[in-house]
Write a structure and sequence with these properties.
Layout (H helix, E strand, L loop, with lengths): L1 H21 L6 H15 L3 H8 L3 H9 L8 H13 L7 E3 L4 E2 L3 H4 L7 H8 L4 E3 L2 E5 L4 E6 L8 H10 L5 E5 L8 H8 L7 E6 L14 E5 L11 E5 L6 H9 L5 E5 L7 E7 L5 E11 L13 E2 L4 H5 L4 H12 L4
Parallel strand pairs: 5-6, 6-9, 9-10, 10-13
Antiparallel strand pairs: 1-2, 1-12, 3-4, 4-5, 7-8, 7-12, 11-12
Helix pairs in contact: 2-4, 9-10
């Protein structure tokens, strides 16, 4: 029993030391910047990758933004400087949460055309479409299933999927439209992905930080999608994407790229492949950051997005005529048998 208490005491001492090291910075502008810089330096999972891709040195970032501080600056001014420093990472999963505002970087979608007209999409659904929790679906006049899923935060149950696929089973193919889907729950990603494969499929890998070094990671752990026990889709699928497909939606596209009957059409996704964690600064502000990187089935980063099998963009002239050029191209692909 004494040995058990000794081990517990040691663990508590280590945990206490770790907690104290996180709060060893003063609640001053410089102290908060140093705390934030160190947090990213030691625990952010894409630092080496972002330095290579974006051409900055995180070691130089501290001096760059420290020069913008002064002891008497306001909380608003400090918030702006810290947000500017975090924006160097170009990561939508990196946020500074305060009562002032939510610090964020949405350049992954804001710097690109939307390629989505929500009112036009609604015209394709019509007024008598089916609703299965977060899924909306109908059958187009050419016997093509049209399914819209706007957010992986919207729950989808196995019963919803069973009923939807049974209803659509006589269609020639499916258009699965996730344009504008900013992510949500990975359980919904897995639940939907499983309906498009008949065998266990390798879809990617995930690593975890094992130390404070930029490249201290565990060995990559493979991620598989196992086939669902219920109804599975056996016909061509065209998956419509745009730059606003992010986070869990990005993971879904990663998964679907490995499915045999799926063709991805649209724009490159927005990315966001890091699993986020949270910490806190001395001032009391919360920091959200990417802590565990995931990769595709070839161990390639998807942090900056996934390319489609074919690029397609919304034609504004056709949109004015009531036609979504991306949906129309997807219909042609299914009709011509060009999806696989």
């Amino acid at each position: 029993m004494k040995r058990l208490f000794s081990v517990i005491a040691i663990l508590l001492a280590v945990l206490t030391a770790c907690q104290q090291s996180e709060y060893e910075y003063d609640d001053t502008p410089q102290g908060n910047l140093d705390a934030l810089w160190t947090l990213i330096d030691q625990r952010y999972c894409f630092l080496t990758y972002k330095e290579e891709q974006l051409g900055f040195s995180w070691a130089d970032i501290r001096a760059k933004y420290s020069a913008r501080l002064n002891p008497g600056m306001s909380r608003v001014q400090l918030f702006e400087v810290l947000c500017q420093m975090l924006s160097e990472l170009r990561d939508g999963h990196v946020n500074l949460l305060t009562s002032l505002d939510l610090g964020r970087n949405w350049s992954w979608k804001e710097d690109y055309p939307l390629n989505l007209d929500v009112e036009l999409r609604q015209q394709y659904l019509g007024t008598d479409y089916h609703i299965g929790s977060g899924l909306r679906y109908t059958i187009l006049p050419d016997n093509v299933a049209y399914v819209v899923y706007e957010s992986f935060s919207d729950a989808i149950g196995e019963g919803n999927l069973e009923d939807m696929l049974l209803y659509l089973r006589l269609c020639n193919g499916m258009i699965l439209d996730i344009r504008g889907n900013g992510g949500g729950e990975l359980t919904n990603v897995e639940r939907l992905s499983r309906r498009f494969t008949n065998e266990e499929t390798l879809v990617g890998y995930v690593c975890h930080k094992t130390g404070t070094g930029h490249d201290d990671f565990s060995e990559p752990r493979p991620e598989y999608v196992a086939p669902a026990r219920g109804v599975r889709w056996q016909k061509p699928v065209v998956l419509l994407t745009n730059r606003s497909c992010y986070s869990a939606a990005n993971t879904f596209v990663r998964n679907m790229k490995e499915m045999p009957l799926v063709f991805v059409l649209g724009d490159q996704t927005g990315g966001g492949s890091g699993m986020p964690l949270s910490s806190e600064l001395p001032i009391g502000w919360s920091v959200r950051f990417s802590a565990s990187p995931s990769f595709d089935a070839r161990m390639q980063h998807t942090e900056f997005g996934i390319e489609p099998d074919r690029y397609a963009f919304l034609d504004e002239a056709l949109a004015a005529q009531g036609k979504d050029s991306m949906i129309e191209e997807a219909r042609r692909l299914i009709s011509d048998g060009m999806t696989h």
